[in-house]
Amino acid sequence: MARIPLPLPEDMTPEQQRVHDAVLAGPRGQMIGPLRAAIHSPELAERWSRLGEFLRYQTCLPARVTELAIIVTGRRWTSQVEWWVHARIGLEAGLPQDAVEAIRDGGVPVFDDAGDAAVYEFARQLQQEGKPDLDSYRAVEHRWGARGVVELTAVIGYYTLVAMTLNAHEIPLPDGVEAPLGPLSETGLAVLPAARVAAGQGA
């Protein structure tokens, strides 16, 4: 059960209803996750939704890359809803199932694509060290340019906000869905190992 009320459409103020209807009409198509909490501040929810739509659907990054950065963030914060939503989308976008399962379980993910490994390392280091090392930064920049490295950083920062919001307010998973993530540390902040690139795969 959430720590705060999660208003149903029929209980919303006109301002909340306007934001709710705009979310339903947009690419998300449904009101889930942190927006269920943010709707208590309609202006915040409206701006949040627009930023999220851009970072999710309109950056220069491939969807697979975006979803990988999101699940690294969700695993770091042990954010159940974030992982449940985005691990499935990541698999649909082409992420290797073995790598996704390794991230979930705190194991070493092995990627055939060196670009995927670079994004994983960028996200992992930014989450755990406060910034990626220069090699990880340049690897992302080499593939997607200055715009790509800026947008990837923004994706990770935005989905950290999402994870914090979901965790702070204990936004629940849908009825009947079991928590997909187990604890990897006593604090709840998972420590993830470095990735590997499969033998024979070049940069």
How much is the radius of gyration in Å? 17 Å
| Reported CATH architecture of the largest domain | Up-down Bundle
Largest β sheet strand count, sense and barrel closure: 2 strands, parallel
Decide which structural class fits the backbone: mainly alpha
Q: Which CATH top level class of the largest domain fits?
A: Mainly Alpha
Give the fraction of residues assigned to helices. 55-70%
Low-pLDDT residue intervals, each spanning 5 or more residues: none
Give the N-terminus to C-terminus distance in angstroms.
46 Å
Q: How many domain units? A: 2
| β-strand amount | under 5%
Describe the fold and architecture.
- There is one protein chain.
- By secondary structure, the protein is an all-alpha fold.
- It folds into 2 domains: 8-58; 61-197, Up-down Bundle (AhpD-like), CATH 1.20.1290.10.
- It has helices at 14-25, 35-38, 42-57, 63-76, 80-92, 97-105, 114-129, 134-169, and strands spanning 110-111, 196-197.
- Strands 1-2 form a two-stranded parallel sheet.
- Helix 1 (14-25) runs parallel beside helix 3 (42-57), helix 4 (63-76) packs across helix 8 (134-169) and helix 7 packs across helix 8 (134-169).
- The N and C termini lie far apart (46 Å).
- The model has no long low-confidence stretch (mean pLDDT 94).
